[in-house]
């Protein structure tokens, strides 16, 4: 269905651009946005590679097990269907930690890894488990103790006057 919507939007853009004599602007915008999409994708590939590599090092060194054990009283209650020593528990904990610290780009690959590991212990591969739904709900709520790093960087760059109000709004939303 989404493919039809995108096709419709592109078709309408070309028709309107042709009728108004601005097809060159449509073409230029399409090329510019394709370039922007590639730049964003390359940046995300770098971020994902960094954090998945960091996670693999933490997993091999035993750091994930230590963190997971320290948070076991909470995670056991939230995810009773996941075995305590399963790698999914470590990925869940790291994802939650990255979200709490406002590292959204770091949390994304960790969340994907956690879902992948939760799928491995899923008896019915076509249906989400309770653990998957709970994990999704926690991620969607985006509990953060620290303002997202990207937002802080942008606010610092532009010397934002609404810095304090943004921190208050973020705190109240979590």
What features would you highlight for this structure?
174 residues; mainly alpha; 9 helices; 0% strand
pLDDT average, as an integer? 81
- Number of helical stretches of at least 4 residues: 9
Poorly predicted segments: none
Number of domain units: 2
Query: Radius of gyration in whole Å, from Cα?
Result: 21 Å
What's the helical proportion of residues? Answer: over 70%
Count of extended strands: 0
Order of helices and strands: HHHHHHHHH
User: How large a portion of the residues is in β-strands, by DSSP E?
Assistant: under 5%
**Major sheet:** none
From the spread of the alpha carbons, the general shape counts as elongated
Termini Cα gap: 34 Å
Helix-strand makeup class: mainly alpha
Keywords: Membrane, Transmembrane, Transmembrane helix
Protein name: Nucleoside transporter/FeoB GTPase Gate domain-containing protein
Organism: marine metagenome
Describe what you observe in this structure:
With 174 residues, this protein is mainly α. It has two domains: 142 residues, no CATH class; 30 residues. Helices cover 78% and strands 0% of the residues. It has nine helices and no strands. The longest helix has 39 residues. 17% of the residues are buried. The model has no long low-confidence stretch (mean pLDDT 81).
């Amino acid at each position: 269905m989404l493919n039809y919507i995108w096709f419709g939007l592109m078709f309408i853009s070309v028709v309107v651009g042709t009728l108004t004599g601005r097809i060159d602007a449509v073409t230029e915008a399409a090329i510019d946005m394709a370039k922007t999409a590639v730049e964003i994708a390359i940046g995300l590939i770098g971020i994902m590679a960094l954090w998945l590599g960091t996670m693999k090092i933490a997993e091999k060194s035993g750091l994930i097990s230590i963190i997971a054990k320290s948070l076991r009283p909470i995670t056991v209650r939230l995810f009773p269907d996941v075995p305590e020593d399963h790698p999914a528990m470590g990925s869940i904990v790291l994802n939650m930690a990255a979200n709490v610290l406002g590292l959204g780009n770091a949390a994304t690959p960790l969340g994907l890894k956690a879902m992948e590991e939760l799928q491995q212990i899923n008896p019915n591969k076509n249906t989400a488990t309770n653990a998957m739904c709970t994990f999704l709900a926690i991620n969607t709520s985006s509990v953060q103790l620290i303002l997202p790093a990207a937002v802080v960087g942008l606010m610092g760059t532009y010397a934002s006057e609404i810095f304090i109000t943004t921190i208050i709004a973020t705190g109240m939303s979590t």
